[in-house]
Amino acid sequence: MSAPTANWSYPTAIKFGPGRVKELADHCKAAGITKPLLVTDKALASLPITAQALDILDAAGLGRAVFSQVDPNPNETNMEDGLKVYRAGGHDGVVCFGGGSALDLGKMIALMVDQPVSVWDLEDIGDWWTRANPDTIAPIIAVPTTAGTGSEVGRAGVLTNSATHKKKIIFHPKLLPVVTICDPELTVGMPAFITAGTGMDALAHCLEAFCSPHYHPMSQGIALEGMRLVFENLPKAYATPTDIEARAHMMSAAAMGAVAFQKGLGAIHSLSHPVGAVYGTHHGTTNACVMPMVLDFNRDAIEEKITQAAAYLGIAGGFEGFKARVESLRTELGIPANLTAMGVKAEDLDMLTDMALEDPSCGGNPVEMTRENTRALFEACM
Ligand SMILES: NC(=O)c1ccc[n+]([C@@H]2O[C@H](COP(=O)([O-])OP(=O)(O)OC[C@H]3O[C@@H](n4cnc5c(N)ncnc54)[C@H](O)[C@@H]3O)[C@@H](O)[C@H]2O)c1
Ligand SMILES: [Fe+2]
What we know:
Layout: E1 6-8, E2 13-16, H1 24-30, E3 36-39, H2 42-45, H3 48-59, E4 65-67, H4 76-88, E5 93-98, H5 100-112, E6 140-144, E7 156-161, E8 166-171, E9 179-182, H6 192-211, H7 217-239, H8 244-260, H9 267-279, H10 283-297, H11 299-313, H12 318-332, H13 349-358, H14 371-380
Parallel strand pairs: 2-9, 3-4, 3-5, 5-6, 6-9
Antiparallel strand pairs: 1-2, 7-8
Helix pairs in contact: 4-5, 6-7, 6-8, 6-10, 7-8, 9-10, 9-13, 10-12, 11-12, 13-14
The structure holds nicotinamide-adenine-dinucleotide and fe (ii) ion (FE2).
């Protein structure tokens, strides 16, 4: 099988397949966007894939501009700078082009063009999103260049509050892109450690959704098949960056992870969010680092489910076999085996524990997270 090409409409319109970025201008026009602001990050802005996307917009006569002041783990200053460019340029839509950082920041710009409330009032808590004026949210087209976060099919963006160093999940139903272009050729140039970390983020989404106790059989099925795609294709994409078929399957797995995690996330993400916010570590790499320890932490609640998953995935040895597979994948991908190796300091563990317990991902963890067991989990990760 070569890399698949397909048009999907779940959960939004997904134009999937190699080379499909060429359709970018057509989709802008169809969405009523005549003057897109392309939001990307500083490193991507100088790469040929970004020049190619801009050429496509230029050839169609769309009056585009670029905003690339996007940090990894983007913050509200990036958003405010982007909003100034958006408003000054009279733009009428956002093309989010990049990894999760650029996608999320582009979504925040689209959301906050003209809102009566602060972005922090739109955190993914209860019905806070109803505080926003939906009519001023700009249309979003997403073009992922990593295969991990799934932000391209999600209705949330992660924004770091640079004053408090807390990562906040900002939610609105209209943050779902009107069209997503999943072109695996765009992911070929990712640095190897980003291929590894983003791919493990997709696995973390599928695994945590699968283990979450909430009732959502549709997500359960998607999460299981998403895990299969990661186990089979991430080592191939890492070893042979030009393997377009493996890259395509990883793009599917990333989107599936984000679809699945409406069922819930868990301790992997609630630990990883504060670590990323405080130390600036890569999100997916941090998730992968703590994944085996979180499996142990949740063992009593998930052993049966993981044993079923292992059988489907062709992994021998039930829970232990599954955990060993995660550990060997982590080693194969060159991901640190503990948080100490990622720069986390023992003296920060109390603060990180407090922050983890505030993270909304805690709510989806199959074992209740308390101050005592979360602190012990952090220690086990060091
Ligand atoms: N919205 C969501 O649902 C969601 C889910 C998970 C994570 N996130 C967030 O997404 C962010 C992480 O996103 P990410 O893991 O995609 O990393 P990223 O967007 O921070 O990108 C990592 C690095 O890879 C580079 N890069 C990206 N694509 C490239 C390519 N094709 N070629 C060469 N270099 C490339 C970027 O320039 C950057 O330096 C975090 O802020 C995380 O919290 C959001
Ligand atoms: Fe994630």
